[in-house]
Amino acid sequence: MSNRDFKVSVTKLLSHPGEPLEVELAGLIGDQFVSSAWVEEGSTTHLSGSLEAVHSGVMFSGVAKVNIVTECRRCLCHSKADLVVEIRELFESDYKEDEGDTYPIHGEFVDLEEMVRDAVVLALPPAPLCKEECAGLCVTCGVDKNLVSCGHDNQGRDPRFSILDQLR
Ligand SMILES: [Zn+2]
Ligand SMILES: [Zn+2]
């Protein structure tokens, strides 16, 4: 199903340069994830900012907000968090796909969804921790040492051979 929530008409913007267009949009951006973090299922992404006509097209600047879930890299517990991403991207009429760092203007409108998706994926934390001092899983018996003290001191064990890493 195509998502129309992030489409904005730029007709007026292009015919009246100098008058920025304020945008407040909300919609779903689908399953976006990196290995240990993802957009919470069904969470709406809110986008606010402005579009401005510039020499080569239309510039968006603003902020996207969405709920995410992160998986602690030490104890594997899941936490919810708010992701807030600042975005500033150019949309061009003579967009060339292989140049890659701008987005297309489709005739009379821009679709901000791809830009939002890209920004959110880039901002997802690559190696989250539930807390800085997370004790992680015991490399001997596998219990969550934040919850249980199993008595293993695991001294001399190379943490690279932990149960957690063997699962990866
Ligand atoms: Zn943890
Ligand atoms: Zn243990």
Automatic annotation (TrEMBL):
Database matches in Pfam families: YceD
Name of the protein described by the UniProt record: DUF177 domain-containing protein
